[in-house]
Design goal:
86 residues; 2 helices; 38% helix
């Protein structure tokens, strides 16, 4: 399985209602992840990990990406990871 480990990954927020998605991943020299801001902190964690999994494992099927992201999000959330707004 090919693993991509880019040096930089850009994450931005954008309402994605028209796309009917919580997150989108754009591959490229600098991968770009777009996150819909209308999510709870727990949903956002799962979405960021989901899209990041697409960046790291570009050949993985969607079912695998979902399982990996949900498991990582569950472990991190149980460990107390939360988004802090400043």
């Amino acid at each position: 399985m090919k693993v991509a480990l880019p040096r930089k990954i850009r994450i931005t927020e954008r309402k994605l209602g028209k796309e009917r998605a919580m997150g989108l991943c754009w591959q490229g020299k600098i991968p770009h992840i777009e996150i819909d801001p209308n999510q709870t902190s727990q949903q956002r964690l799962d979405t960021v990990l989901h899209e990041l999994t697409h960046v790291i494992l570009p050949d993985a099927d969607e079912e695998t990406v979902i399982k990996i992201a949900q498991r990582m999000a569950s472990v991190l959330w149980s460990d107390g990871w939360r988004r802090i707004y400043s």
